[in-house]
Amino acid sequence: MAPRHRTTTFTTLIFIFLSFVSYVIAQQPEVVVKAFHNLPARLFFFDDTTTILYHDVSEGEVWVSQDEGKAWSRADIPMGEAAMLIEHPFDNHYAFVLTKGTKHYRTEDRGKTWRSFEMPLQPAFVMAPLSFHSDPKNFGWILYQGTKCEKSTMGWGSNCHDETWYTKEAFSDKPQLLLSETSRCQFAHSSKDFKHDAPQSLIYCVAFDTTTTNGGHSLGSSRLFMSEDFFEKDSKILSLGKAKVTRGVLAMAIVSKYAVVALKDLSPGNNGEMMLYVTVDAMVWAKAQFPHASSAKLLENAYTIVESTTHSLAVDVLLHAGSTVGTLFVSNSNGTYFTESLKDTNRNEMGFVDFENLYGVEGVGLANIVKNALDAEGRGAPKQLQSRITFDDGRTWTRITPPTTDWEGKRIACNPADADDCSLHLHSVTNMHNFGRVFSSPAPGFAMGVGSIGDHLLPYEQCDTFLSTDAGVTWKMVRPDAHKYEFGDQGSIMVVVNDEDGVDAVRYSSDLGKTWKSVKLGISIRARALTTVPDSTSQKFVLLGQIARKDQKGDGRFAVIYLDFAPTRNRKCIDNDFEKWYARSGSHECIMGHKQWYKRRKPDADCYVGDKFTDPVGHEENCPCTDMDFECDYNFIRNGDQCVPAGPEPIPSQYCTDGKGTYMGSSGFRLIPGNTCDKVKGKAKDNQVEKDCSQAKPEEGQVIHQTFEFRAKIFQQAYFKDSTTILVRLQDGSVWQSSNEGYTWVQLFPDEEFATFYLHTDTADRAYLITKSKKFYYTTDFGKNWYPLDTPSVANNFGIPVLRFHPTSDYLIWTGMEGCSGSGGDCYAVADYSTDNGRNWHRIDTYVKNCAWARGTQLKVDSSEIVCESYKDKRGNQRNFRGENPLELVEGTDFYRKKQKLFDRVVGFAKFSEFLIVAEYQEAVHSLDLQVSLDGKRFATGVFPPSLRPQNHAYTILESSTKAVFMHLTTSEPPSPFWGTILKSNWNGTYFGVSVDNVNRNGDGYVDFEKMIGLDGIAVVNVVSNPDEAPLTKRKEIQTRITHNDGGSWKPLTPPKVDSDGRPYACTSTKCALHIHGFTERYDSRATYSSPSVPGLIMAVGNVGEKLAEYTESDTFLSRDAGFTWQEVHKDAHLWEFGDSGSILVIVNDEGPTNHVRFSTDEGDNWHEYEFSTEPVRVRTIVTVPMDTSRRFILFGYYPKAEDRAVAIHLDFTSLTHQKCVLDIEDPGHDDFELWSPSEERQERCLFGRQTLYHRRLRDRNCVVGDQPKAAEKVVKNCPCANVDFECEFNHVRDEEGNCVLVPGTTPLPNDETCADDEDYWYERTAYRKNSYSSCEDGLRPDRGPRHACPGLRGHGFMFWLTVLFFPVGLAALIGYWYYRRSGLARGAIRLPGDSGSRSSQSDFMDTLASVPYFIIGVAGIAWERLSSIRLPFSRRPDYSRRGYRHVPVDEDAQVLRFEDEE
């Protein structure tokens, strides 16, 4: 018998051992495996529940687990029926299974039971056929989008359209039809963040106002409808600023607190640009304004609304068609004004963007940019991605600081202090490898990612796994290789699984990634997804994987593995286990006026949090208010760090009743809505301030003014296009800015001296201030903010434009000089280019005279092509070069790396519309040739009448807006006064014919030639009527001529019968006409006869007589019909300006100092006088915003007693009337506008072969047009061709009877025997050619001689054409169907966060063939969309800026004249 003590000891050991074993077992996570046949199309938890649904779309079934994936049962739904699974986003009891038919299923108990319901239609093939109401009281309000098909009227196939139905009891009641022909409907209350006071029943629908007979709709019929009673009686079409009815609506979405509508601008000549309208209250909609107006245009399928916060909307815009590199823009608090946040963002072909905000931490976001964007876009190089992080809501972005050691504690290979070559880069949204968010979860402050350390991101398989526990401030490498990852129990448990190879275990950490433990799965899998409950508060996880073949048991190839980590910890955390964790970095602690902190478990606390389904609570501590917490108040404009008034401030009626005293008004600032900062402890910038009553808005009917005196003469002034901001440069080198049309002024950078400034020729919101050192300042937001950048050289003083601009990008060319600081040495001009708006520069060439981008707005050539006038011998002082050093013309693609010499010797080159024109010097014969190109590479020599070749004449290129080049060729001999012949080319600029002789020009090469703005083909010239006597007398007698057929014929201006006093003119014979002073006499060359905002209205200074009188002997005239008839509106010569689309005209005496202006609100019938000063001012120019849409003007001039100091007088006519003009395009004749045609005063009703009508304000209506969008011109019809539609062919001129005859001694052009694509015949040439801008049809055709049949396939029978046509059409239908679906053209869609791309179509091959007519329309639509997105060579939008002349003199050493600020 064993001793008692041994027995006791043994028993004790067994007890201890069993206790240890049971403890170890208790510490191990629980693992349960369930096999499935297919991966799920959807796998989701009901919010705040343990119930998870698994949708196997291949088998058409749904599986349910009530215990977070441990046990599964199949839903009680017929096998094969489940086509789509949708959860109710606002009620966690409900989910819906939609089938392909009309019988569907619903659960109201989280999948325990399912009941069927019937709908009249099968569900539509859209991403979200159900739309829900966000108010819990109206949980049963659901919209259902279905597809209704009817047999085609052609007898084959079906025509289908979508309808939307509604239920108020979650399909327990009988569904009712809401609206037919819908694209998308949703409740205004469909987001918890979009809070407003609109009725609960308000519904928005994007739908068509026409019915379809072929399954398709025109975009023009797409509207945004709204109703407050489910469209039973109340149905309205929402107007978004486009007249009475908004057309072209593509989509609507609710994002965060914003509702956004996307629509396409359908106005003629538009390039498919889209517009976004935004509201935060469901009542007031505003157009979203993007900077870089020409380079950031929204195009369909080229922008993405990315994840946004409740205080700003974020949009990524694709700047170049076919690219996958974008620019991220972030809005202000109401979502209407956007600023550039991050350039070169990475996107994929589906529109998804590498951008994500960290969950629960305000202001922190991660994005990827393309390091080599230029090479990736231009040369197709593989993208090199870099990651950026923001801690201040996108205001600034920085590189991610990498850890100093790897997961084993070894130092990393690069130096983290070298941010360029050593940063952390992470894979993001475009390379998703798991469900849900990429980096973060609701666990506060925790983020994980797969990435690499270096200068750019490595491929996924070469990356490692990183963790941040402080919301991205610091990171550490926690595992080698790429892993899927998930957070649980508010971050106290982290699980990772290798994502590069098959695994049989997962790893987890309960101490914030310090140590990791392994859990065996029992099988080998290839991980596909890892998830947990949405709020990351559970200790249970679901791992989805593909089972290794050796472990498959026949019950499925895929596994859902339930992982329960609750057994690993047995103590629940108490208060001492938690700490207060502050979000964001130290330099950006305060966002929206407060700090943010969470209660979080301490890293070393061995406990579980355990508050399941209790979301972490963010706490706020208000910060003292700073400048960042305020934005400009209404009626104020940002100007640097100030908010200046847009004009006089509206005040309550009880103040300033006598116009004297003071009032309490806005400081210009307001606290950003939603901001919670403490104004007591910080700044209170929104406190009202005391103001003088003179700053208050006047009563209706009053005019006010403000006077500002500059300290020197004005050398340069210009408005930003589409803006109220104007810049002024003075003689002393200072630059001044006014953001409110001259109401107040501020000096920019008082310590700098500026040589000049440039406004970007193609991007309205950009400008550049050029200093006299190696520095410039630029703005990308109309001068609200200016930023300094270095330049590669000092700005040149050779007379070469310092900056050249690219029409579609950030590309710049800078021409400076080197070696010019002293009196001797090699002084020469140098050119550099930048692809990032001046941040980095690269050398182009030295010893250049002019370098420019070959690409123009309509000259569609390689974007990287540069053209330079470059001296052959690159040595010596360039200032001393004469004819001995040839000036070559060199073009270089790939940013001048691949150079090619185009011409051995040139005088200059110029771009006009679609033409590149070069003046080539022929050294052998000492003459000039004109070379014309449409592609920047291939040139054709211009052919001229024998007596008018440019070899021996100076010439000036004038204009090319109507598919032809106008050129002035000087024919007078020096030293006579100058005049010459205007020649007009054919469509490609190669053959020139005489348009009009003896046209006046001055000594600088500028010509009295001006086209009417907005009315192509109408132009005015001044001709020298005494060409025989002028060389002897040295005095030119001038007469005026006008053309209404683009130079085809010219005639005098018809004089008015009486003057402004009602008295007949002394000159009454047939020799009498109206003659007006032209371009060569203007003080400000930008002043024009006409206005872009009111078609047909012209003002000029002139006289009635046989010739033009002196300027001071002239009077002021006006025409309302594009120059057909005229009236004298005032005696004496006046300067004039058009305002508010012609609703107000202002004139000021131009013969001497004055103290008043005159204005008219009825286009000159009546004039009123306003005195702006007690002391007379010599006014030199009147300016207003470039589009003439404002009622505010600036007079620039000087007091006679101080001519060396300029004065600016701001005139404000906005309070003359507050009555807004009414424009109703749908019901013309019952509003304040008339439909007017420039042909009204003529016998023929057509101009350029068409009758065109324009909307303009009625003359007697005293109302404000404002900035409402103008109605597009309306082409009523194309007219039969008449004589006015033709001009003389090459080598022909008009005789005294107006007929075209061959010039003696010349030969006509040979016949052109080529056939147009749709023509059966070609015609022999005659003495006439059709005006290329005319659209006339049939009628008189003097341009056609005898006809000849075109060669080709004719006379084939029915079966031949059936074979030729049917099969290409069938193929095109299939291609069109694929492209139509793939590109999203079938239904406009705003790309939103979480979109997973288009659903695959359910149609089979026969469905496609049966729908050929429908898809032919689809193909045509696609083709047109593609064409409209590429500016065709001869499609033109009106250019409302004053066009710069190019003068090419005979002297090869003289310069080609250019306006410096114009292209």
Give the secondary structure arrangement, pairings included.
Elements: H1 4-27, E1 30-36, E2 42-45, E3 52-56, E4 61-65, E5 73-74, E6 84-87, E7 95-98, E8 103-107, E9 115-118, E10 122-123, E11 130-132, E12 142-151, E13 158-167, E14 176-180, E15 182-187, E16 203-208, E17 222-227, E18 236-237, E19 249-255, E20 258-264, E21 273-279, E22 286-287, E23 298-299, E24 303-305, E25 314-318, E26 325-331, E27 338-346, E28 355-357, E29 365-370, H2 373-378, E30 385-390, E31 398-399, E32 423-426, E33 447-454, E34 464-468, E35 476-479, E36 483-488, E37 493-498, E38 503-509, E39 517-531, E40 540-547, E41 558-564, E42 578-582, E43 594-601, E44 619-622, E45 630-632, E46 636-639, E47 642-645, E48 662-665, E49 669-671, E50 689-692, E51 704-709, E52 714-719, E53 726-730, E54 735-738, E55 746-748, E56 754-759, E57 767-771, E58 775-779, E59 787-790, E60 794-795, E61 803-805, E62 812-818, E63 828-834, E64 842-846, E65 848-853, E66 866-871, E67 887-892, H3 893-896, E68 898-903, E69 906-912, E70 915-922, E71 927-933, E72 939-941, E73 955-959, E74 966-970, E75 979-985, E76 992-1000, E77 1009-1011, ...
Parallel strand pairs: 95-101
Antiparallel strand pairs: 1-41, 2-3, 3-4, 4-5, 6-7, 7-8, 8-9, 10-12, 11-12, 12-13, 13-14, 15-16, 16-17, 17-18, 19-20, 20-21, 21-22, 21-23, 24-25, 25-26, 26-27, 28-29, 29-30, 30-31, 32-33, 33-34, 34-35, 36-37, 37-38, 38-39, 39-40, 40-41, 42-43, 43-44, 45-49, 46-47, 48-50, 51-91, 52-53, 53-54, ...
Protein name: Vacuolar protein sorting/targeting protein 10
Pfam families: Sortilin-Vps10 (PF15902), Sortilin_C (PF15901)
Transmembrane segments: 1358-1380
